[in-house]
Design a protein that fits this description.
Blueprint: E1 5-10, E2 18-21, E3 33-38, E4 41-48, E5 68-69, H1 77-89, H2 94-101, E6 113-119, H3 129-137, H4 145-152, H5 156-164, E7 168-174, H6 193-208, E8 212-218, H7 224-237, E9 241-245, H8 249-263, E10 268-270, H9 276-287, E11 293-296, E12 308-314, H10 331-342, E13 345-350, H11 355-362, E14 367-371, E15 382-387, H12 401-413, E16 416-420, E17 429-432, E18 449-451, E19 456-458, E20 465-467, E21 481-484, H13 488-498, E22 504-507, H14 515-526, E23 532-535, E24 548-553, H15 558-561, H16 567-579, E25 590-595, H17 601-608, H18 611-625, E26 631-640, H19 643-655, E27 663-676, E28 679-689, H20 694-703, E29 712-717
Parallel strand pairs: 8-13, 8-14, 9-11, 9-12, 10-11, 12-13, 15-25, 16-23, 16-24, 22-23, 24-25
Antiparallel strand pairs: 1-2, 1-4, 3-4, 3-5, 6-7, 17-21, 18-19, 19-20, 26-28, 26-29, 27-28
Helix pairs in contact: 1-2, 1-10, 4-5, 6-7, 8-14, 16-17, 17-18
The structure holds adenosine-5'-diphosphate (ADP) and zinc ion (2 copies).
Length: about 725
């Protein structure tokens, strides 16, 4: 029977479900993407099962007709169920989740061609500085005028003039041109015994087409990637799509090369900084099943795959899978739900799994696959601590003598060292020696971080930047500003001072901010053109440099200072991951961890290489605190540009709190980050037993309240950030 009326989930969170008439001759079903009239406007909507989307029934004769059906495949029921589950679990609107699915407006417009531009090799009639700069920046680029303008940092008009003069030439591009095909058998590796066993299980699971969650628990360098590639190959043979989620775009460069090596061509990429044409091409190929393997950031999880056969979450413990804005979801957890709805295997790969994931494996919910040793006989590195209270660095320095000596030995032997400090910039705080003035962000509760490379003071929370002044803005004194504490830039300076001959590479999101720069860095490190790498968490994972034999952790206590729920776990993961960069080749690796608390359980466990002891202690602590996985946390974050308005809203929420046995409610209190991007913030924290219907409690509670229009009330289920 054809549908004569349709209920829509409309892509606008402020609107509820809306009913329409399906005009004669139009064919729609659940999942169809349609355009409907709304007042004088038109809105985008998805046809939904009325019983899954309760609304008020409007009489047939009052219904307006749908305007149009968008020429894309209808969203499959599995995906519709995932949208419902995500909205429900994370207390978000269906529309905001659905928007992550329809992530490309261009893709909805159907097949088309687009005009892109590239340098023709010709010269302009008159060369100006601006033109010269623009042309240098556009070398090798091809994109629309607007995108090129953004790349070159000039106005559209400047580029239009270059088009008129023939310097930029138009190219007609088919928006849907097919991607090259990956080949399952392009370059098959010879797997080790352990790897073969694990790969066989994964391959079988892909062939079985059933829900099967795996924890791929393998030490750093054990060949987890190589192993799950066999499951990818199986999916390719079966003509099923694969999604590989990576925590960071910076990592994709190394991954792409490995993938191409194994399968003969690069996979389809998805991340937030894709050009609109790339985005539309990828989206359409994903929706029609032509994209075989998609590698992306967490947002790739919600795309409308036509025939998904496998999901891999690589480095699954990574915090960046948690989104902290908009729909506050955890891609690791949603990936498992998607696999369940779609009935397919999902692989969480990590050398340092999240406690929650280990717990699922221990209780038999996930199947645990173990790769206990490094590939090719490489040994795990030896790990020692340096007690900074005993072995002090020189005044004004941060590298202890023993670490400096170990680095000098490496330099002499032509091997590489890596220093890890998870702090961008030169110094985390600048203060006036005369009056004590500290430079703070005007929009956030945060100190400004000095960046010497860009000669700026910058806020890492909102992006505010200012010039470092010559005089103190408070007392007017000059030459009185001092940098307090180290960031990676300062450590790199120190290395240059103590090892004048060493070639130092600084690896942070400030220096490695494009795929090209990532590729350059990898090539230099592999080509042994770098002696010392100084980096933030960007260097902790993914890289494989055989000549790297020493890892120094500048300050292992840093992560513990915040004191949030996952501080110890995160410290463990970060240090274990960066330690895992050492000695991956034939030569043994050494790791030196600088700390003021060598006796702290997490540091002691790292030094002893005793992962089980750490997880056991951490599990006990969590059980005691009723923290995940034994209980659950949720945060309610209230913010407004007006402090009184935010406080008032938070108090009203606090005053109407439900009284429940299985949910403890703390707050409201000013958030640790009481001001963020110019918004005043208050928080409530909920701790619930597993028996509690946490989401329902929150929905009923907040749903009964109305707030001023400037107030935002966000709900964070299983929060990672406690600022
Ligand atoms: P992990 O992801 O577990 O840290 P990788 O997959 O990066 O480990 O593997 C470590 C290194 O060993 C990589 O350079 C990889 O190419 C190599 N390697 C692993 N397994 C094999 C294999 N079976 N054949 C050839 N090289 C392998
Ligand atoms: Zn001063
Ligand atoms: Zn700020």
């Amino acid at each position: 029977m054809t549908m004569r009326r349709a209920r829509l989930l409309v892509m606008n969170a402020a609107l509820g479900p809306l009913d329409y008439r399906v005009p004669d001759g139009m064919v729609v079903g659940p999942g169809s993407v349609v355009v409907a009239p709304l007042g004088p406007r038109q809105v985008l909507g998805i046809v939904w099962e009325p019983d899954k989307l309760p609304g008020t029934d409007v009489a047939d004769e009052r219904l307006r007709p749908l305007h149009d059906v968008v020429p894309v495949p209808p969203l499959r029921p599995e995906l519709r169920r995932l949208i419902e589950w995500t909205a429900d679990y994370y207390c978000a609107s269906l529309a905001s989740v659905a928007r992550m699915v329809i992530a490309s407006g261009g893709a909805l417009r159907g097949p088309s061609t687009i005009t892109e531009y590239r340098l023709s090799g010709g010269a302009p009639e008159r060369m100006t500085k601006q033109r010269e700069q623009a042309m240098a920046a556009l070398e090798g680029e091809q994109a629309t005028i607007r995108e090129l303008a953004a790349i070159a940092g000039v106005s559209d008009a400047v580029l239009r003039a270059l088009v008129n003069q023939g310097v930029l030439e138009p190219v007609q591009v088919d928006c849907d041109r097919p991607y090259p095909r990956a080949r399952a058998d392009f370059a098959e590796p010879v797997l080790s015994e352990d790897q073969r066993e694990v790969a066989a299980k994964l391959v079988d699971a892909v062939a079985a087409r059933k829900f099967a969650p795996f924890l791929l628990d393998g030490v750093t360098g054990s060949g987890k990637t190589e192993t799950y590639f066999e499951a990818v190959a199986e999916a390719l043979r079966a003509n099923r799509q694969v999604l590989v989620l990576l925590p960071e775009i910076a990592l994709t460069e190394a991954f792409l090369r490995r993938f191409e090596h194994r399968f003969g061509t690069a996979p389809v990429l998805w991340h937030s900084s894709l050009k609109s044409t790339e985005r539309r091409r990828a989206w359409r190929a994903i929706a029609n099943g032509e994209a075989q393997v998609v590698v992306g950031a967490r947002s790739a999880l919600f795309l409308p795959y036509a025939a998904l056969g496998l999901i891999v979450v690589d480095e699954a413990h990574e915090v960046s899978f948690k989104q902290d804005e908009g729909v506050r979801y955890n891609a690791r957890d949603v990936a498992v739900m998607r696999a369940r709805f779609e009935r397919l295997p999902v692989v969480l790969a990590s050398a340092t799994p999240a406690l929650e994931s280990l717990h699922m494996a221990d209780t038999g919910v996930y199947e645990r696959l173990v790769l206990p040793a490094r590939y090719g006989g490489a040994q795990m590195p030896s790990i020692e601590t340096i007690d900074l209270t005993q072995e002090k660095p020189e005044r004004g320095r941060w590298i202890a003598p023993r670490l400096a000596q170990a680095m000098a030995d490496r330099l002499e032997r032509g091997e590489q060292s890596l220093l890890f400090l998870n702090r961008r910039g030169y110094a985390p705080l600048t203060l006036c020696r005369e009056c004590g003035h500290r430079f703070q962000c005007p929009q956030c509760t945060a100190w400004l971080v000095e960046h010497r490379l860009s000669a700026r003071l910058a806020c890492h929370h909102c992006g505010h930047e200012e010039q470092r002044p010559a005089k103190c803005p408070e007392c007017g004194e000059s030459d009185c500003l001092v940098a307090c504490g180290p960031g990676v830039e300062r450590i790199a300076d120190e290395v240059a001072e103590i090892m004048p001959g060493a070639r130092v590479a600084l690896v942070t999101s400030d220096t490695i901010n494009s795929p090209e720069k990532a590729a350059d860095f990898i090539a230099m490190a592999e080509g042994r053109a770098i002696d010392v790498i100084v980096g933030t968490q960007l260097v902790t994972k993914g890289f494989h440099f055989p000549e790297l034999t020493l890892v120094g952790v500048i300050d292992a206590d840093l992560g513990l200072e915040g004191g949030d729920l996952r501080a110890a776990e995160r410290t463990y993961q970060q240090v274990a991951q960066v330690a895992g960069r050492a000695g991956r080749g034939a030569k043994p690796g050494e790791v030196l961890i600088q700390t003021r608390h060598p006796e702290a359980p997490v540091i002691a466990a790292l030094a002893a290489g005793d992962r089980d002891a750490f997880y056991a202690a951490e599990t006990d602590a969590r059980r005691h605190a009723g923290a995940p996985p034994f209980g659950r946390w949720a945060a309610i974050i209230v913010s407004s540009e007006d402090d009184a308005e935010a406080r008032d809203a938070a108090n009203r929420i606090g005053n109407t709190r439900p009284n429940l046995d299985d949910v403890t409610i703390l707050g409201p209190a000013p958030a640790p980050m009481a001001l963020l991007r110019g918004r005043y913030r208050y928080r409530l924290l909920l701790n619930a037993r597993r028996s509690a219907e946490l989401q329902k409690v929150i929905r009923d509670w907040l749903g009964a309240l109305n707030f001023a229009s400037g107030v935002r009330v966000g709900v964070d289920i299983d929060p990672y950030s406690f600022v």
